[in-house]
Amino acid sequence: MKQQLIMKLLAGMAGLGIALGAATAHASPEADRQEFIKYYTSKYPDVKLEDYVYGALAFDADSKAQYDAIMEFPPFEADIEKGRKMWETPFKNGKTYASCLPNGGKQIAGNYPMFDDAKGKVVTLQDAINDCRTTNGEEAFKINDMKTMGVLTAYMRTLSDGMLMNIKVEGPKAMAAYEDGKKTFFTRKGQLNFACANCHVQNAGTRLRSELISPAVGHAVHWPVFRGGDSLVTLQQRYDGCFKQVRAVPPAQGGTTMNNLEYFHSALSNGMPMKASVFRK
Amino acid sequence: MRKFHQVAAACAISAIMLSGSVLAQNAAAPKKEETGKDIAFNRVKGNCLACHGMPTVPDAESTGLYGPPLIAMSARYPDKAKLRAQIWDATAFNPASSMIPFGKHGVLTEQEIDKVTDFVYGL
C-alpha cells in the first residue's frame, strides 16, 4: 500500500508519461519526500537516515572509513582557499558578494534552488551569484566552469555548513517547476533507457559493476564534491555525467530542465544538514 | 606526514575504482570476430556483468547486482526464443525493469543478440 506511488512512477517510466502525471498530480513535495524515505528505509532498515548525506558511503562501512580519514585533511584545501580569495576580493566597484547576497551569503545555500515569483522561474545559488556579479558590473561566470563558479561555490557553500536544506514549493508556478523536475527524474532517457530513478531509487544500495549506488535523499546537500580528491564537480556537472552515462544528451547546465531537476531533487533532502565540500571517489 | 598519506590514499582509491562511467566506456572496438562471450563482457556492448553475476564463468569478475545471477539458463528457459526476447527488450515483461532493451534500442545488432543468447543459454 505505502509504496504505491513510487511503484506507479517506476512502472510509468516505461514510457507512459500520462501514468506519471496521474499518479503525482496531488502529491505535495513533503509527501513525496516521505514516500522516498519510506521506500529506502523499509528496504534498508539498518542504514540510518542521517547517514544518507554520505551517499553510497552510507551503505559501505569500509569506504566510509576511508572517507573519514581523507576528510580529516582534505586534499582539496588549496581549492577552497582559492575560493575564499575569490569570495573576499571586491568587485571593481568596491562591492562584495557578501554585500549583495541575503544574510551576507551565510546560511543561505539550503534555500536554493528557490522559485523566484518575479522572474517566474527557478533560481539556483549559482544564478544568485551571477546576478550579484552582473548587478555590480561584472561578467557572469559560466555555470559549468569548474575553475570559476565551481571554485567560488566550493568556499561559498561552506558558509552554510550545518544549515538544514529548506526548499519551499509555494504556489502553482513553483509547483509546476517542481513537477517538471520530478518528471525528468522519473523519465527514461538515452539509448540505455534509464531514468534517474532506475538507479537512485530502484537500485540504491545495489552494485552496478563495482559501484555502489547512492539514494536520492541526501544527494543535494554536499556540493561541490572533489572526485579522487582533486577534481571539482558541481551538482549539475554530476547530473551531466549521469545523463551521458546512459548515452542521453544532457540538457544545458543552468537551463530550465536542469534547474527544475535540481529544485525537485534538492527538496528530497529537506531537513538534512548542508556540508561543503566533500571527497568522492 | 599524515597529509601525504591521505592524498596517497585518495589517489589509490580513485585508481582502483571505475571513475564514473560504469556503463558507457570508450574501449577500442576489437577487430577479430566477436564471440557471444566477448559481446556480453564488452563494456560498450552487452556489459552484462555490470548487472549480472555469472557463477559458472570463472573470469566474470566484479559483477553488479541489479539483476539475478545468470545460471542454469537452458533449464530455466527451455524456450530459447523467450530468453532472446528478454535480452531484446526486458521492459516488455517488466515495465519497471532496469535492464537495457538491447534490441529495441539498437544497443546490440540482431546478430550480436543471437550470439549473446547462445552464450547465455549455455550458462
Question: How would you characterize the overall build of this protein?
Answer:
- The complex is a heterodimer of chains A (281) and B (123).
- Chain A is mainly α.
- Chain A folds into two domains: 2-73 and 170-280, Cytochrome c-like domain (Cytochrome Bc1 Complex, Chain D, domain 2, Orthogonal Bundle), CATH 1.10.760.10; 77-158, Orthogonal Bundle (Cytochrome Bc1 Complex, Chain D, domain 2).
- Chain A has helices at 4-12, 17-24, 29-43, 61-72, 77-88, 97-100, 125-135, 146-156, 172-186, 196-202, 235-245, 256-267; strands at 114-116, 121-123, 207-208, 211-212, 225-227, 231-233, 278-280.
- Chain A has a three-stranded mixed sheet with strand order 6-5-7. In chain A, strands 1-2 form a two-stranded antiparallel sheet.
- In chain A, helix 1 (4-12) runs antiparallel to helix 2 (17-24) and helix 9 (172-186) packs across helix 12 (256-267).
- The longest helix of chain A has 15 residues, at 29-43.
- Chain B is mostly helical.
- Chain B is globular.
- The model of chain B is unreliable at 1-20 (pLDDT under 50).
- The interface between A and B is large, with 37 and 34 residues.
